[in-house]
Amino acid sequence: MPRSTLLQCTWSLRLKLELPGVDNYVFGGAVYFPQYSYSRHILLYCNAPYYNIFVYRKVMMNTILKSIYARVLVSAFCITLSSAEQTNADEKASSSPSRHVRLLAIGNSFSKNATRYLPDIVKAAGDQLTFQHICIGGCPLEKHWKNAEAFQKGSTQVMASAWSALTAEKWDFVTIQQYSMYSFKIETYRPYAKLLHDYIKGKNPQAALLIHETWAYREDDPLFKKTMTQQEMYWRVRNAYETIASELGCRIIPSGDAFENARTDPDWKGVFPDPKFDYKRTQYPDLPDQTHSLHAGYSWKKAGNKWKLNIDGHHAGPAGEYLAAAVWYETLFGKSIVGNTFVPNHIKQDKIMILQRIAHKTVTENIRPPEVNKLH
Length: 376
Prior knowledge:
Radius of gyration: 23 Å
Low-confidence stretches: 1-86
Oligomer: single chain
Strand order of the largest sheet: 8-7-9-10-11
Largest sheet: 5 strands, parallel
Number of helices: 11
């Protein structure tokens, strides 16, 4: 039997796998078989002691047939976790009873981004979610409060009557957040966050009010050419949410922290703008390298008969939506996202494991980026 190559996986897992007649290499939680480069991908799920392992095996079908008896070699998986807390998190997640959470989110397109994959994550975990959303694009706290106030006065206008959702269920959690363009301006939160808090708690005293900390824009967003840097935006947003949460006695859903942690994580960090891309002379359909972008980023849109390259450095792209949803899941359900089996389209399994690790550490360890550029 050939000798297996043992390498450190990116998510602190060491794995050794030996299969007959196959040289294999472990990279970031995936097992590759280089001599069968022209074959299809198969996803195997193996239950090893103390850990669930997802393995991509790239082999010819006849090799898979030969390897069926690999199930008897499960005991040959030698697992060494670099941190005891990851083992504990996975064991807790697998042994925890199913939970049913009732959630009302009050927000805008950023809360829509953050909850896009939440139902899928919840389903994959074997939990239940009752979810309603009072969502108005670009809506600040002030406008949400005025709509709630109008509803209390009997208004049947659509945005006001949406507040009937507040008493539609006995909510476990209700979330609020600020409009991203105002999120770094502490004065825009007052007095509306407090007014919303008091109204929500008056109607749902059993509900925990959570404040969703939204994220800073991507580094190459046009905003940063005019006023502040990306780091300055993050810390101003962070300080504003932290201040308001303290005033109201509420917990934070730290999506913004998770985004920033990902930006500085060596396994995820991307480079924006792309230094190799000629933004002035580009032609449709060329795009810059946006690997590891948490934001929607650049795309082509047709304006009349011409194509125009546009950037959306505000909203989350698929990776950012998954990361935020992972943070929401851990915060709402009190369970680890690590090992959750839901994988959105267009995101590879090895990337999911990195995002799960970042989300988990952000929530459970209150991890934040280095404070070198923090405002004082």
